[in-house]
Amino acid sequence: MSDDFVQVYEYHQYCPPGAQRVIASGFSPWIGEMDESTVFKYPLNPGGDRTRLELEHQILEIVGPHPRIIGLKRLSEAGLYLERTANGTLYSYLTDRTKSPPSIQQRLAWCREATEAVAHVHSKRVIHCDIQPTNLLLDENLHLKLSDFQGNVISEEGQVILEGGSAEPCRFFRPRPDPFDADFRTDLFALGCTIYFIMMGHCVFH
Predict the structure, then answer these.
(1) Contact predicate 22/31, CB 8 Å
(2) Is 9 among the domain residues?
(3) Nearest one of 35, 70, 80 to 143, comparing CA atoms
(4) Which spans in 18-175 are helix H?
(5) What's the predicted TM-score (pTM) here?
C-alpha cells in the first residue's frame, strides 16, 4: 500500500461585514457583493492569507485604468474592492441557453475588446497568465473587461520583478517544458483559444 496521502482542506462560506452575499469563489478568495457597483474579494478563512489579493492590487495599480480592464477601487485590511459588472462572465453569457445567441457582429466586437485588453496589459509589461472566458466580464452594455490578475510583471531587461505564477487551465495552456515559465506568448496562445471560444461557442481543445 502506498504511503502517499491526500490532505483535505475544508472551507466554510462566510460574508464579512458589508457584504450582502457570496457571488463566486476564485482560486484563493471568496467574492462578495457589496452593492450594484462593487464586489469584494476576501480570504477563504476569516483573517486568512491576503498574499494573492495584495499581488492583484499591485498588478492592477501597474496596469492602471482602462475601459477593457476591471476597475480597481481599493485594498483594505479585509480584502480587495473591485468594480462589479452587471452581466457576469463571458463564459456564462455564451453558455446560457436561455439567451439568444449573440450576433456575429457582437462576437467580433468581443474578440476586438479582448485583444485590446491584452494589448494594454502587455504594454505595461504585465503577463496576465490566465486569459480565458471566465476571466472576461461583461458590463451593462456588454463590453468586455479583463479581470483576475495573478500573473507576472516583467522588467525591460526581461526579468520577473513581481511573480504571481502561471495559472491558465489546460484548455488555454500553451505547451512548454516548465508550466510555470510564462511569457507574453502564454497570453497570446490563451487569447487565441478564447477568440475561438467566442466565435464558435466551445473550446478548441477538449
Answers:
(1) yes
(2) no
(3) 70
(4) 51-63, 90-95, 104-123
(5) 0.90
* Averaged pLDDT for residues 89-102: 95
- Number of domains forming the structure of the chain: 2
Supply the pLDDT for residue 87: 96
Cell of 53: 489579493
Given CA atoms 127, 55, 154, 70 in this order, what sign does their dihedral have?
positive
Give the domain CATH number at 164: 1.10.510.10
Judge if 44 and 146 occupy the same domain.
no
Residue-wise burial string across 161-195, b where 16 or more C-beta atoms lie within 10 A, e elsewhere: eebbebbbeebbbbeeeeeeebbeebbebbbebbb
Range of 103's domain? 90-200
Residues 128 and 100 in one domain: yes
Phi and psi at residue 147, in whole multiples of 5°?
-135, 180
Phi, psi at residue 55, to the nearest 5°? -65, -45
- Provide the CATH number for the domain around residue 67: 3.30.200
How far apart (Å, rounded) are the C-alpha atoms in residues 131 and 192? 9
Asked if residue 195 and residue 97 are part of one domain, the reply reads: yes
Q: What is the pLDDT of residue 175?
A: 81
In which band, very low, low, confident or very high, does the pLDDT at 2 lie, cut at 50, 70 and 90?
low
Of 114-118, 162-166, 197-201, the one with minimum mean pLDDT is 162-166
